């Protein structure tokens, strides 16, 4: 369920408001959509410089999963140690519960795997809430996107991985089949992403740099024919629907995308042709650079073979 929270704190030091308050509120909260910050009653951004004795009030929403049931859902484990779990998430699996999806999610599987108290929340001042917070989730893949996904198993791992995803020090590489061939074999889409005004479930790009969230997507064409292209994509940021929105914005929607592309009856059973192929992170405990791969799923392999290799 969604829980609204508000915290007021008197600053004891100077600096960016999100940094100064990180001892009391997880820094990731300041980047959440819907978070509002006031300093001495006036709205400010997370980069605002506070001084000692300033009164800061932060209002935000938090997802909790009280009462969720453990479910014995098989996970395709790529790697696991005491700090992290890396899986190959299958297309169709929802990462965490929400409206209409309270079972069959990755979180249900994690609770079964590690127990009802599994949580990596660092919000220790509300001890009774700790076990209800989202377990281990530091990033998401859309329901219909498959591929590499990492889960934190400890508070230290959670903090480290969240920091890496926020600073974009990790590397995320995807593969996709998109509509229409490209003129240039390499390119970059650098465009802010905002919610669509007419449909709040969709996103679009904005030409106004003051609106939305910055997003950068690099693509390389691997193979293509007169109708489709098989591409490798590296994203610097991790916005919701980023690859799907950016590819749509340049006239190359992802094949099988139920939101940003028209149905392709011939390949309808293949689903969204987008797969998280590779993820590189610094291990939260050892600092070692680690790279994980999830093999191209058969559903996409068959499409690539049919569309591209026979051209």
Chart the SSEs and their pairings.
Blueprint: E1 2-10, E2 15-16, H1 17-20, E3 36-39, E4 42-44, E5 49-50, E6 55-63, E7 77-80, E8 84-89, H2 106-114, E9 146-152, H3 155-167, E10 171-179, E11 186-190, E12 192-195, E13 203-206, E14 216-224, E15 228-235, H4 242-249, E16 274-282, E17 289-293, H5 298-309
Parallel strand pairs: 9-16
Antiparallel strand pairs: 1-6, 2-5, 3-4, 3-6, 7-8, 8-9, 10-15, 10-16, 11-14, 12-13, 14-15, 16-17
How would you characterize this protein structure?
- The structure is a single chain.
- With 311 residues, the protein is an alpha+beta fold.
- It has 3 domains: 2-63, RNA-binding S4 domain (Structural Genomics Hypothetical 15.5 Kd Protein In mrcA-pckA Intergenic Region, Chain A); 77-167, 2-Layer Sandwich (Pseudouridine synthase); 171-309, 2-Layer Sandwich (Pseudouridine synthase).
- Helices cover 15% and strands 32% of the residues.
- The protein has 5 helices and 17 strands.
- The protein has helices at 17-20, 106-114, 155-167, 242-249, 298-309, and strands spanning 2-10, 15-16, 36-39, 42-44, 49-50, 55-63, 77-80, 84-89, 146-152, 171-179, 186-190, 192-195, 203-206, 216-224, 228-235, 274-282, 289-293.
- Strands 7, 8, 9, 10, 11, 14, 15, 16 and 17 form a 9-stranded mixed β-sheet that branches.
- The protein is globular and about 70 Å long.
- The termini are far apart.
Put the structure in a nutshell.
The protein has helices spanning 17-20, 106-114, 155-167, 242-249, 298-309; strands at residues 2-10, 15-16, 36-39, 42-44, 49-50, 55-63, 77-80, 84-89, 146-152, 171-179, 186-190, 192-195, 203-206, 216-224, 228-235, 274-282, 289-293. It has 311 residues and is an alpha+beta fold. Strands 7, 8, 9, 10, 11, 14, 15, 16 and 17 form a 9-stranded mixed β-sheet that branches. The protein has a 4-stranded antiparallel β-sheet with strand order 1-6-3-4, with no helix packed on it. It has a two-stranded antiparallel ribbon with strand order 2-5.
